[in-house]
Amino acid sequence: MQQSPRAGREGDVLAVVAQKGATVSFFDAASDRHLGSVQVLAEPHELCFDPTQRLLWCTSTYHSGYYHANSGRRTQLTVVDPDTRRIVEVIDLAPEHGPHGLALDTARGRLYVSVEGSAGRPGGVVVIDTATRRPLGRIDTDAPGPHWFAIDAAGRRGYATNKEAPFVSVVDLERGVLTAKAEVPGSEGLAVSADGARVFVAAPYASFAATAGQRPATGIRVIDARTASVTGILPTGSIVFPVHLTSTGKLLAGEVRMEPDPESRLGRHAPGRLTVFDAGTHQRLGELEVGLFPLTITASPDGRLAYVSCATSSTVEIVDLETLQGLARLDLSGTGGSLAHGLAYIPRPA
User: Which PANTHER family does the UniProt record give (predicted)?
Assistant: First the structure.
């Protein structure tokens, strides 16, 4: 008999950001029961769980609004104890601002945080010591708005996607310098293969003002890490925002779909799509309809379950990746927040 995908998850927790309402909510991974919420600074975006320090990091990116349309950029990271659901510390990165993407190197105790540029200098990545929770330095990315950031498993190379700049910034994490620019037509989410040989990047940048005929083909650009060049495209029907690679080698892409609306030139959101590829063979394995505007994706450590946060519907879809069937939908409206964004899966304490 096949084991239930929920079996053995007792004590595990899913953390979810509500961008509006400014909370991080915690749900029991076995039962989906809401365990409680923590109030954080306005406009929280992404989450990253550090299993060594057993702390949850949360970026707050803007005072209000979003990329391209905001009332000013924040400078803070909030550190949360996920077991007691209490704030440990709020770290101010000023003069750095617009913190968003998070990537963790557990072996070296380093957290990498993408930050936006200003008139005086380009965007970059702030390096933080996870033990002291203090910045160690900065790596320039030569682009105004690095948004998502990912590193290889060896902790030697990092990649920043840039919404407007026509390249992915490649940085040497050991030397702290920009080493290459992989040409793509603006980019969103990304993931690095387990062996570090390939980088999967959502492109082009999601400009809803552009019609389908005016923008490059939508999909996942496959970048050869050795040459920093695109070697192929995994095609999708719509613009992709989040990309996630599971421990079992499945590449997950969240497609944002729009439909005509006579009252808006941009249209209105239609149900999104979770598209699944085999990261090794690039074969399309299937797809599943999800909520409105999939914005972040994560998976359980065993790679069996996917979690897709959908911003406009304020929901999180829980998907069985073996059967590609939806198991449940978490609704943030009952937790005091809305606009689902960052996600983190938190295994129970050892």
Answer: DIHYDRO-HEME D1 DEHYDROGENASE, PROTEIN NIRF
Q: What pLDDT is recorded for position 214?
A: 66
Handedness of CA 283, 289, 293, 295 (dihedral sign): negative
As given in the structure block, the two tokens for residue 253 are 């892409």
Query: Which pLDDT value is given to residue 69?
Result: 73
Backbone angles phi, psi at 293, to 5 degrees: 65, 70
The pTM for the full model equals 0.96
> Taking a C-beta distance cutoff of 8 angstroms, is the pair 25, 34 a contact?
yes
User: 264-278 and 284-292: which strand pairing?
Assistant: antiparallel
Q: What are the tens digits of pLDDT across the range 228-255?
A: 999 999 999 999 999 999 999 999 999 9
Task: Give the 3-state secondary structure of residue 334.
Answer: helix
- Give the CA radius of gyration of the chain: 19
Q: What is the mean pLDDT of residues 38-44?
A: 95
Instruction: Find, among 181, 188, 209, the residue nearest to 146 by Cα.
Output: 188
* Mean local confidence (pLDDT), 312-319: 97
Q: What residue segments make up the domains of the chain, in order of their start?
A: 13-346
Q: What's the CATH superfamily of 13-346? A: YVTN repeat-like/Quinoprotein amine dehydrogenase (2.130.10.10)
Q: What is the DSSP string of 67-95?
A: TTEES-B--EEEEEETTTTEEEEEEE-TT
Local structure of residue 41 (DSSP, 8 states): S
Residue of 347, 282, 303, 337 whose CA lies nearest to 38: 337
pLDDT digits (tens, 9 = 90+) for 110-155: 999 999 998 888 999 999 999 999 999 999 999 998 999 999 999 9
Q: Is 83 exposed, middle or buried (0-12, 13-18, 19+ CB in 10 A)?
A: middle
